[in-house]
Each structure stands twice: as structure tokens, then as C-alpha cells.
Amino acid sequence: MKVLVTGGLGYIGSHTVVDLLNENYEVVIIDNLVNSKIDVLDKIKKITGKDVTFYEYDLCEKEKIEDVFKKEDIKAVIHFAGLKAVGESVLKPLMYYKNNLMSTINLLEVMKDFNVKKIVFSSSATVYGEPKSLPIYEDFPLSTTNPYGSTKLMIENILEDLYKSDNSFDITILRYFNPIGSHKSGLLGENPNGIPNNLMPYIVRVATGKLKILSIFGNDYDTVDGTGVRDYIHVLDLAHGHVLALKNPKTGLKIYNLGTGLGTSVLELVTTFEKVTGVKINKQFVERRKGDVAACYAAINKAKEELGFAPKYNISDMCQDSYNYVKKNKDI
Ligand code: NAD
Ligand code: UFG
User: Fold this and answer.
1) What is the span of the domain harbouring residue 135?
2) Mutation test residue for ligand 2: of 126, 198, 229, 290, the one with most atoms within 8 Å of CB
3) pLDDT tens across 65-78, in order?
């Protein structure tokens, strides 16, 4: 079966492509390289020994997507492509709405025209806003606090309306919690541009000496040690969730949280990182970051029961693999 993976050279997309190839899917990637590098393609081939068809196209150009659907016999789509930096989305909201919404609408229109009705979409735990209680279930109220999150929620609404208008669509919305870690080979991983906003990319750069000190945003939250709690999930487990979503016998419109169901504080993550790598992380406590919630972790019962989702990796594995990636890639 031939699967189109948009954003397939990005962090989560590349790991998912490897998993798909290992499961004998044929893969076609569309990526405009706005946040990824072309050498990822060779690394995917090196890991799997398999070929991928790649189109360096922007999904905002609809005729480019049509070109791919004319040439390739696409049966399903996994849609990762999008811009994802929360802070940047506040500074450049129009860029975020334009890129994330236009690309998705173009893609859905072409899918409809070519009668391809199966799609898996990358949403985010950010759509839960400030959760009313923990763990977070899929039917909790939704709200957002920044343009990036709003694009995710808007796309969820678009997919729901599309499904209401045409219930032959088979739509899976996956709400990711906090992916970290990297491929065991050290060839694939997360390499954000500039100074990282997210915790693990920051920690590994302090570990390698590229950055001096980790600022921990707040130590007065009502959590186990006062620092923010998140549900970190190994990117390999997250990637596998997409393969399970493709294989899901249940059709229609489905929404699943993908996390581990476990909360880890910033200090717990840093301590585990130091333990497994033997590298000390310089750190300081600073003010809370605006817009952060105290704690956020998923209920994953639904993904477990309906998809057979069973995360394999723990926080130690995630720390080890994140560090392994930066050690093997000196330019990071
Ligand atoms: P990423 O930036 O590494 O990958 C996204 C890819 O999409 C990049 O390779 C980029 O070049 C490509 N892209 C962006 N706009 C495009 C366009 N118009 N046309 C073609 N290609 C385009 O991000 P990621 O971490 O792999 O995330 C993948 C998806 O998961 C995103 O939609 C993101 O919002 C979502 N998500 C990520 C996280 C996270 O913490 N990483 C959490 C929740 C949800
Ligand atoms: N943190 C620090 N110092 C840093 C970076 C982060 O203390 O330098 C703390 C944050 O305050 C938070 C935790 O580490 O408590 C995790 O922060 P991240 O920025 O790594 O992750 P978030 O949970 O804030 O957000 C991420 C993505 C969002 C996505 C969300 C849920 O950035 O886009 O996960 O998937 F919506």
C-alpha cells in the first residue's frame, strides 16, 4: 500500500517513514524543507535499505499536490507538514494560519478529487489548553492560547465538518503529548533552528557545551517538586502509533491521545538525563514561562484499547537516545 507522508523529512515524520518502510508500506514524501534537511532522505535509506519517492513541494501550491496524486497511486495520507513553534506563531500569526490551514485545505481538496479518503492528522495536546483535571481524556473541553494551537484546533474542526459532509472519509486525529528521543542509529533526531524552545533540545545543548545553562521556568507549581510536569513520549513509540492508526480496523472519525500516561517533572527529567549520560547539567530557576500549564499528561486507554498502542520506552531511554543523537552529529 502506498502512503503519502507530508512533512516526512521532519522530526516525527522521518521516524514514522522508517517504521512504515520496515512494515513494507511504500512511501511517498512531500516536504518543502522549510524545517528539515534533504540529507534525512539518505539517512532513511541507510537505516531501512529501502527507497522513498520524494517531492520537494510546498503544500500551499495545490497543483503540486495534484501532480503527486496523478503520478502516484496514493491510498492513505499521514499529514505531519506544518509550522510548529509556539513563540514564532505569536510573532507571525498570518504565516502560521496561511501555511498550516492552506496546506491542509489544499491536501483535503485533492484527496477528495482523487477519492483518497484515509488520513491521519498530527494534532497536539496543546488543544486541551488548561486541563480541568488529570489525566487528560479525549473528550475534555478544547481551547488554545496561541496561533499555533489555534491552527491545530481549526484543522480538527475542518476534519470534523468534512467527515459530517462525507462519511466515506476515514479520519484519525492524533493528539501528541511531548515527543523526545531519537532513532537508535543516531542518524535521525530533532534539530531545531536557533536556540531551542523545548526542554530536551535545550538540555542536550547544555550537555554538549553549546549552551551554558538551562533555565527552569518556575519551581513553585503545585507539582511533585514545583517544576512543570509533562508526558514525554519516545519518538519511536509515537511514530509507531501512526502505523497502528493506519492498520486500525475501526473507520470513521477517531481521536486518540498519544503519550505514555505518565507525568515527569523538569527536575526529574534533568536528574534522569544526568544519571544515564553521566553529564552534569548546569541549571538555574527562573520565572514561570507565560502560557505554560503546571502539569499535562494523557489518558491513553483509548489508544491502548482501539489501536493496541503500548509505549515501550521509558524516560531513561528517551534521555539516552536524545543525547546519542547530538553526540553523533557534531554540527548540532
Ligand atoms: P518538523 O518541523 O520537524 O516537521 C514538519 C515538516 O513539515 C518539516 O520537515 C517541514 O519542512 C515540513 N513542512 C512545513 N510546512 C510545509 C509545507 N507548506 N509544505 C511542505 N512541507 C512543509 O515537526 P515535527 O516535530 O516532526 O512535527 C510534525 C507535526 O506534529 C507538526 O504538524 C507538529 O505541529 C505536530 N506536533 C509536534 C509536536 C512536537 O513536540 N514535536 C507536538 C505536537 C504536535
Ligand atoms: N522548560 C524549562 N526550560 C526550558 C524549556 C522548557 O523549564 O528551557 C519547561 C517548561 O516550562 C515545561 C516543560 O519544560 O514545564 C516542557 O516544555 P516544552 O517547551 O518542552 O514543551 P511544552 O509542553 O511547553 O510544549 C510542547 C510543544 C507544544 C505542544 C505541547 C504538547 O512545544 O507545541 O508540547 O504537545 F503543543
Assistant:
1) 2-181+232-259
2) 198
3) 999 999 999 999 99
